[in-house]
Specification:
By secondary structure, the protein is of the alpha/beta class. Helix content is 34%, strand content 15%. It contains eleven helices and nine strands. Helix 7 packs across helix 9 and helix 9 packs antiparallel against helix 10. The longest helix is centred in the last third of the chain and has 24 residues. The protein is globular, with a radius of gyration of 19 Å. 43% of the residues are buried. One of its GO terms (cellular component) is plant-type cell wall.
Length: 353
């Protein structure tokens, strides 16, 4: 059951991208009902999306995005779940939890329903330890601590900007892996949370993700994907590479592990292959780019870091494909739009609490 007083009830928005009726919310009602939802409707704006009774929500479709952002609306992807980042931009809360509409409540090994949102909040409210790995993983959990040899000067940790959750049932695989392992299911519940070390990138999945919007929000741009673009299904990973470089630079932490959700259905691997095809080749250049990129001492806010990254993308990645020129321009447009909609937040997102 949900806590009697939900954690951060007035400080957190739940962002959901969708093209269908949100019946899945019934399963999440005990956990989500106290919170405000931001629903970003993808695809045909004339289609009516039904939301179950009792939820406090606002819904934005493509017409709303065009109306609010005007000519800058072209930075928001169309016909791709990357459209969810519009919800991050219009939120006025400190924290965001985002989930896909095919993700259900999972059970832990004892059979108890997992309150994923509560666990994400606990992760975000707890420090991270990116500078020295603790072999007991999360030292701040009950029953754990820092092991012998862990420097006392690093035990205070750093603010946590991102909590990356995992999934039972359908794994988050790319199309080639889906094709060779069509029946594989993830049944392993690993009771662990860890901080991803400084200098280490990771493939971020957007279907069960929470973050501190004030600390890292302007970097949570899910890129240009889907309709009219040569690539899809790299939206959350692109954001993950960007946020990790920026978190490392600003001294912020990223956690991964608990909580789990139940991912109910696999997307079509042949459709996915068409969307991912270029990305499978491009990522072999993109990853070394992010591993080597260095932000300047002048990059003291998330926005400044992100604009420097956009310039590096234009300078270094556009030789791979003209798409990256367009993506770099969209990254700049995204920051301009963010600052227009969040004028007070422009100075708040500076890597400090």
């Amino acid at each position: 059951m949900a806590s009697p007083t939900p954690l951060l009830k007035d400080e957190l928005d739940i962002v959901i991208p969708t093209i269908r009726n949100l019946d899945f919310l019934e399963m999440w009602r005990p956990f989500f009902e106290p919170y405000h939802l931001i629903i970003v409707q993808d695809g045909d704006p004339s289609k009516t999306i039904k939301v179950p009774e009792g939820f406090d929500y606002e819904l934005y479709n493509r017409n709303d995005i065009n109306r609010i952002l005007g000519p800058k609306a072209n930075c928001i992807s169309f016909k791709d779940s990357a459209c969810r980042c519009f919800g991050y931009m219009v939120s006025k809360k400190k924290y965001i939890y985002t989930i896909d509409d095919d993700c259900f409540v999972a059970n832990d090994p004892s059979g108890k329903k997992i309150n994923a949102l509560e666990q994400h909040i606990q992760n975000l409210l707890c420090p991270s330890t990116p500078y020295f790995f603790n072999t007991l993983y999360e030292p701040y959990r009950e029953g754990a601590d820092f092991v012998r040899g862990y420097p006392f000067s690093l035990r205070e940790g750093v603010p946590t900007a991102v909590s990356h959750g995992l999934w039972l049932n359908i794994p988050d695989y790319d199309a080639p892996t889906q094709l060779v392992k069509p029946l594989e299911r993830n049944t392993r519940y690993v009771d662990a949370i860890m901080t991803i070390p400084k200098g280490t990138l990771f493939p971020m999945c957007g279907m069960n993700l929470a973050f501190d919007r004030e600390l890292i929000g302007p970097a949570m741009y899910f890129g240009l994907m889907g309709d009219g673009q040569p690539i899809g299904r790299y939206d959350d990973m692109w954001a993950g590479w960007c946020i990790k470089v920026i978190c490392d630079h600003l001294g912020l932490g990223v956690k991964t592990g608990l909580p789990y959700i139940f991912h109910s259905k696999a997307s079509n691997p042949f459709v996915n292959l068409r969307k991912e095809y270029k990305g499978i080749f491009w990522q072999e250049d993109i990853i070394p780019f992010f591993q080597k990129v260095v932000l300047s001492k002048e990059a003291t806010t998330v926005q400044k870091c992100y604009l420097e990254l956009a310039k590096e993308v234009k300078d270094k990645l556009s030789k791979i494909d003209p798409y990256f020129d367009k993506l770099a321009d969209a990254m700049v447009t995204w920051i301009e739009s963010w600052d227009e909609l969040n004028p007070a937040g422009a100075s708040a997102a500076n890597g400090k609490k």
